[in-house]
Amino acid sequence: xxxxxxxxxxxxxxxxxxxxxxxxxxxxxxxxxxxxxxxxxxxxxxxxxxxxxxxxxxxxxxxxxxxxxxxxxxxxxxxxxxxxxxxxxxxxxxxxxxxxxxxxxxxxxxxxxxxxxxxxxxxxxxxxxxxxxxxxxxxxxxxxxxxxxxxxxxxxxxxxxxxxxxxxxxxxxxxxxxxxxxxxxxxxxxxxxxxxxxxxxxxxxxxxxxxxxxxxxxxxxxxxxxxxxxxxxxxxxxxxxxxxxxxxxxxxxxxxxxxxxxxxxxxxxxxxxxxxxxxxxxxxxxxxxxxxxxxxxxxxxxxxxxxxxxxxxxxxxxxxxxxxxxxxxxxxxxxxxxxxxxxxxxxxxxxxxxxxxxxxxxxxxxxxxxxxxxxxxxxxxxxxxxxxxxxxxxxxxxxxxxxxxxxxxxxxxxxxxxxxxxxxxxxxxxxxxxxxxxxxxxxxxxxxxxxxxxxxxxxxxxxxxxxxxxxxxxxxxxxxxxxxxxxxxxxxxxxxxxxxxxxxxxxxxxxxxxxxxxxxxxxxxxxxxxxxxxxxxxxxxxxxxxxxxxxxxxxxxxxxxxxxxxxxxxx
Length: 571
Prior knowledge:
The radius of gyration is 33 Å and the shape is elongated. By secondary structure, it is of the alpha/beta class. The longest helix is centred in the middle third of the chain and has 53 residues. It is 59% helix and 11% strand. Helix 1 packs across helix 4 and helix 2 runs antiparallel to helix 8. It has a six-stranded mixed β-sheet with strand order 7-8-9-4-10-11, with helices on both faces.
């Protein structure tokens, strides 16, 4: 698929709030254009001053001062208006990308950045680069309009002025065009280096105890210095390249004004111009000299945004690439996931009767692992346990069933209907998933469990996961801030908080990937007793614990990605 150009992406972002942008545009064009009026007043003032016996034009001077006051008042008002637009330009892409990652069909894992720092860089820096395109359009528009008027007036004085202005502008454009591909490469390298630094800082904060326990403080400092030095090298190259292009614009603009002054000065010396004409020319030449500056800045920003658009588009599904700048109010246009056969659709509110995997196959490139032709059935009221040696494909099976990884072949069937996209169907309240390592936010414990859910079942979730016994030892109870990734909790508390997050949503199907990974056998047994007492009767678990296997209705044994045994223990 051909990627959209940066101007086209920026244009779609502009169309989210066209009236607000038009207001800013009019304000900026007015701000840039008022010096045209000031220049005319300067011409009249100078011509009157040199007239013999004429009185000082105090009235015009007062108008000139008042005009400047109005101009800067407009700047303040437009800056306030611009700030509102700027916030919108930053918000729309971020909201849309987040919604795409959590709501669009298909697994999001393949689209996610490899590290948290990379995600921060894309959501912060790359979105800002796209917004800067719209920002520089305002300045460039004001400069183009005012320069066009000024150039028209100056051409009436001397056509050679056009040559003095146009040639430097073309030089700036040519220089930026030549440097453009290099700027693109340097900006990508700079973004990736910055992401590595940000990600490393986040990892260190999340693993402070591991660093201390391993006595790795010196190694961490050394590694931090290395990646910062690498970032400094590529960032310097990126910044120098950008400044060279900006300097081309600034330098050629000053050259244009200087050459034009020389041209007009010779004519003034021959008496072909009045003092007012010379004043008018000086005022208008400064306006025109700004144009190459904004052209150079625009070309730099577009090249940088070119990289950012690529990086943001990589977070979206292929059909949704254009939606990075789509209006947020129309983004969620997907209905319930389509099911086949069409004659037997699974209703959005239909309770689970049976979930089946038919020939599910997933291959992990490079590792040689995955699953092959796996058949699995979970009926309402059943506890199905998947077990097997390490690397046998247990986690892959669960993730493929839920659509969190893409299956190469096979089908997931809900109540007899094939699910086209499990990732958008098998979510609460149909199914809830507890991975081996739950991801917790640095929020109060209650908030990281609820994630926006109503708190009606929060106490029950605390009780079922035995967290009610821990709350009394926490400084603020459920309002205790747990730190990045639950750093202030024990490993068992992190695991049980993740379980509470799944249980509080009261799903039809509870999917758990090895709750025992951070819990002792006694605590895990108590959790499962309370979960059963809480009315959760349908679950798919990965476990090797004897007490869990004894509770199971069916035990599915995997080895090397294939089902090697199915044991019916009850029913």
